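Entry type: protein chain
Record version: 2
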Amino acid sequence: MKKLSIYILSLTMITGAFAQKLDRSKVPAPAPAPKINLNQPATFTLPNGLKVFVVENHKLPKVAFSLSLDVDPVLEGDMKGYVDITGQLLERGTTNRTKQQLDEEIDFIGATLSTSANGVYASSLKKHQAKILEILSDVVLNSDFKQEELDKLKKQTISGIASSKDDPDAIAANVRSVLVYGKKHPYGEITTEETVENVTLEACKNYYKTYFRPNVSYLAVVGDVSVKEIQPLIEKYFASWEKSDVPVNKYKMPTAPKQTEVAFVHKEGASQSVINITYPVNLKKSNPDVVKTRILNSILGGSATARLFMNLREKHGYTYGAYSTLSADELVGYFNANAKVRNDVTDSALTQFMVELNRIADEKVSAEELQGMKNYASGIFAYTLQDPQTIARFAIETEKYKLPADYYATYMEQIAAVTIDDVKEMAEKYITPNNAIILVVGNKKIADKLVEFDANQKINYYDIYGNDYVEALKPAPEGVTAETVMNKYIEAKYGVAKGKALDKKLKKIKDITVRMDATIQGQSINVTRYQKAPNKFANAITMGTMVVQKQAFNGTIGKSSGMQGSKDITGDDLEDLKLSSIMFLDAKYADHGITYELLGIEPINGEDAYKMIQTKPNGDTETEWFNVASGLKVKSMSVQENDEMPEPITVISELSDYKEVNGIMFAHKTKQSFGPQTLDMTVTAIEINTKLGDEVFE
C-alpha cells in the first residue's frame, strides 16, 4: 500500500464535509482520522550501548547528526550554571584540535556544529559526512576543557544575568521556578552571578566524564544516507567511546499549594504587571492523558483563538495576549496561565483568568469548539511530518519514554477520539485554580488589590530570586529633606556649595565632550556626548566609522538621525530634549520647575542611598538615588514610551567610579538597562572648553 502523503493527509481534513450535500443546520461529522504510515527509521546499537536511528531522506544531498543524552537532571547547588557551561565548553577545543582549528575545519566544509549539556548537533553536505562525523566524535569523546575558555564563558554568562535582572519576564520565570518546584529540586535552582563565579573547571570536567556516555545516548542520523554506508562510519568513530554506569537521580515530587496563594515581586517603576497562575502537575510523557490535555490546553489558552486570549484581549482589552501551558515532563510537569497587563487592570485581569479557569472545569465545551481545536491539532501534527528530523525525534521519544510502538502512527486517531467528556475530565483533574500560585511581578502600589485572591487574605512578597522579601526602605533622619539631599549632591559633584561661587565656576565652562567605550550584547560601540552653553546638546553612537544613531538639539530644533534615516524631534519629545539639553541642569533644577520628593533610604549595591522622586514641569517622573555618605547620584530609573514601542520600557542607569575632572566629579562608569538589554559604558576622555562648533549640534 502507498504511504499517505502530507498533501493527501491535509486534504482529508477539509474534504470530508463536502462528500455529501451540506446540511447547514448540523455540524458536519468529522472524517475518520487516518492512521499514518510513518517511515520507521532503521536502528542499530553499538556494543557500547549507543542507540542509532537512521532516517533516509534523499531530497537534498545533506546529512545531519544529532546526539542526545537520556540522563536525569542534577542539583548544581552553589555552582548552579555549571552544567550549561559544560555543554558550551564542548565546542571550545579537543585534545586533537584547538578551538580555532575546530572552527576552521567546520567552516572549510560549510558545516555546522553546536553543543549543549544535553548533546551535540552537526550537519554538512553528504560529501563531507565522514569528515563532520569524525569531528563530531572528536568533540564528544575528546573534549579538552581549558580554564581560559571557562573564564570567557563565565564572563558572558554573568553579563547575560546582569541584563535579565531588570527584565520582568526573566524575574517571573526565576521566581516561578522556585515557588513551583522548590530550591531543592533541579528545576527550582536559579543561576545567579554568584553561582556562576563559583563554577570550577573540575566540576565541568566531572559532569562531562560522568554523563557523556554511549549507554545513555541516542544518535539520530537524518538525510541522504543509507544504513549500509553510515553504520561502518559510526562504528569507526564511536566504537571506542567507553560506556560506564551513569547516576540515576531521584527527587521528591513537588506539590501544588493546598489553597491559592498570591506571591508578589516588586519591580520599581513597572507600568505593567506580569501575571502567572501556576502550579506543578504529575503528568509524565507516557501518561495516556497527554493527548487529551493538549486538546484541553488548546481550548483554554494555547493560541490566539483560545478562551483566555479572546476574553482578556479581545473582549476586555487588558493585554496584548493571554495564554496557558500544560506541560508533561518525566520528573514533574506544570500548568501556567500568563499575561502582561496594565497596572490599573491587574485585579480585573486576574478575575477574568479565574473565570476562564473555573469555567473550563465546570462547564462542558461545545462540540464546535472541540472539533475546531482537534482539526487544528491534527493540522499542526501533519505539518511537522514534513521534517525528516521529526521522524527521528518520534523514534527516540518512543524509546526514551517507553511509549507504545504505534504511539505516533496513531496520533491523529488519538486526537480524533478525544470527547467533550474527556476534556471536562482533564480540566477537573489538571486545572485547579483553587490550588494555584498567583505570581505577579509589578509595582507594589497595586499589590493590596490582590489580597482578595489569596485564600488567607495576605500577600507574600519575594525578591527577584524567590527569596522572602523584607521592605528595605527606611525613613531619612530628622532634618534631612529633599532640598538638603540635593544641596549635598551639588556640593559633592561641583566642589562648591550652591550659590554665587558655583554660578561663577560654571560660567567658565563653555562646552563639554564626554567620550565613552560601550558594549551591548557583546558588540563594541562608541558613545560621545556633547554639550555647549547654554542649551545645545548632541549624543552620537558609532560603530567604527558608521553612525548608528545621533540625537541633536541646536537650541531650537531637535533631530534624530542614523541607520534608519533622519527625522525631526517634535512635540513632547522635543520639550524633554530642550530641558535635558541645559548645561548643568542638576545644579539649576529649581529654576526650571523641577521638584524632588524624598521617600527614604534603601541600600544600593550594599550602601545606603536616599531615594528621591524627581518631577518635571510636564508631570513626568524619575526615581533617583543619592549615596548617603558621598552625596553623589548612584542610580536613576524612568519609564519611557513612544508610538514605536508596543509597551513602556523601564530604563535604569547605575553610576559609579566617580573621578574629578576640572573640579567636577564625573561618573566614569554607567550601566544602563532597558528591557532585556544592557549597555555598559566606560568614560575614556572628558574634554572641557574645546570650542565646539555649532555644526556638531545640527
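Comment: The chain has three domains: 42-238, 253-462, 482-697.
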